Amino acid sequence: MSKTLIVITGPTGVGKTAAAIKLAQHLQCDIINADSRQIYRGIPICTAAPTPEELAAVRHHFLAFKELEESYSAAQFETDVMALLPSLWQQGDYAVMCGGSMLYVDAVCRGIDSLPDISPEIRAAVKEKLHKEGLESLVAELELLDPQYAATIDRKNTSRVCHGVEICRQAGVPYSTLRTGTTKQRDFNIIKLALNIERDQLFGRINRRVDRMIEAGLEQEARSVYHLRHLNSLNTVGMKEMFAIFDGTMDRNTAIERMKKNTRVYAKKQLTWYRRDPSITWVTPDDAIPTALNLLSVK
Asked: Which of 71, 131, 215, 253 has its CA 20 to 30 A from that of 116?
């Protein structure tokens, strides 16, 4: 296998975008976005999307290509990336994938089990039940349809709960019976680098980034999509805290501090997830490029 996908991942706020751009420029290749929120249009501040200058430096794929109302999944991401890669391999031997969405990274590197396509009718029915009866009703249904899967997921994660119910309804069998966990063989090499720094330093970066988001106009951005707050695409750190301000359930200072705390909690979850992967090489942001080039035997 002469082609190589280099994955740059790690906790939020660690500096993945800058490292990926430098590496892609050195290798003269494209970047594949693996951030599940940056795929949506209209919320670049909240998702810390690459700046226009960064986008001009290297061609990116799967950034801001979906409307907030559109559904998307790790399984669809796997399909889309696998369809894109042949054209990238025609341009050269390398591609860089950058992002911290754990399921998206795993979808490309390990593959996702084949699952039935969800019919528009079932998707609409699940969405209607969510709006009329709340998330708790879908959690209760999932516990009946697939208690094994229900016991393993975050029951406050609207997307995961809805997806589980949809699969169970569509397939007519528990979702857990369709999950084999088998790693798919890829016809290209994969090098995975996870960036990390000292915990205090990382948390400081996260806190400062939230402050920059506020200064850049996060509140105005959130206000512009407030009427769509029921969408799963907006069920994310940053938007939830801003919506709480608009709803009158949280004051501004508390919301900003809560946003920092929730982002730090998410970063810890990312680190826990990636530490289970023995194929990952851990590096500091400064060591990412030389380590990648050394693993590739490229000068």
From this structure: 131
